[in-house]
Structure formats: structure tokens, C-alpha cells
Amino acid sequence: MGHPGYPPPQPYPPPSYPPAYPPAYPQPALPPSPTIGPSMRIDVVQGTPFGVAYPLVPSTPSGPSIGSLVAGIASILVALVVSCLGVGGAADGWGPTAAGAFTALAVFLGLGSVGLGVFGMRRIRLAGPGASGKGMAITGIILGAVGAGLALLALLVAFLLVV
């Protein structure tokens, strides 16, 4: 019944009987592994083949620690502006006035950085292992103190150059 030039069709292979069904009795399940990679912890439920999965959440940096670091960096930058204005404008007489305005900003940022850093360290200590950012808080405290100190020193130099 084939077409001229084509071989006759082959019959389909007979189906295999009986079909492969799962066994009628339950197989004992192996307990799940205690951990699956670094992002999941699994505890076995006693007496059952089941387990409870706990996804491990990465630690989050403390917001006040980030704010402390940013304010500390800004304090250093404003202190550098104070030194440029104080020394550069000392010959014209307007240096200490302009440097004084920016010194107030640098000291405000420095004190804010120190306060946020201390607050961030306290929150990290109270939060336990789920929070991070201690290094940022310490760096913010140091940068804030150095920025405020540099600004006050630059203002003092500006006043000494005018007199």
C-alpha cells in the first residue's frame, strides 16, 4: 500500500505490559540533607520524611552607619573647602568670614557623623548577627571627628594669617 519508490511502512512496536507503576507500598524516604548550599538550612521533622526549610537572609547594613560614613566624608570635603577659602582669601580680608560659615557646616556634619556612628553601633550591637555596618560606623566616627577638627584648625589658620 505504499507509494511507488518508497518502502512499505513498518508496524509500530507492541506496547510493553504491564506499565511501570510505582510500588503499592511506600518506600522509606531519606531524610533531607542538613544544608543545601550556603543559602538554605533544612531541619528534619522527627517521625516524618519531611523537613522545614529556612532560607538564610544576608545581613543588611545599618542605615545610621551608612549615614555616618556619608556625613563624615562630607565633613572632610567641607573642611578642605574651609582651608582653601581661609588661606586663599586671607590676603583680601574675606577669608575668615567665608571660612567661618563653612566651618560651621563642617562641624555640624562632623558632629552628626559622630552621633550617627554611635547610634549605628548601638543598633548593630542590639540587632545581633543579622545586622552589619560596624566598620562603616567606626569610619564615619573617625572621619567626622577629623573633618570637624580640620575645619576648626583651618579657621584658626585663616584668622592668624589676617592678623
Describe the structure.
The chain is mostly helical and 163 residues long. It has a domain of 103 residues. The chain is 54% helix and 9% strand. The protein is built from 3 helices and 4 strands. Strands 1-2 form a two-stranded antiparallel sheet. The longest helix is centred in the last third of the chain and has 33 residues. The protein is elongated, with a radius of gyration of 36 Å.
Q: How many angstroms separate the termini? A: 118 Å
Q: Summarize model confidence as the mean pLDDT.
A: 82
Please describe the biggest sheet, giving its number of strands, its sense, and whether it closes into a barrel.
2 strands, antiparallel
Count every beta strand, where a strand is a DSSP E run of 2 or more residues: 4
Sequence-ordered SSE layout with sheet pairings:
Blueprint: E1 40-44, E2 51-55, E3 60-61, H1 63-88, H2 95-127, E4 131-132, H3 134-162
Parallel strand pairs: 3-4
Antiparallel strand pairs: 1-2
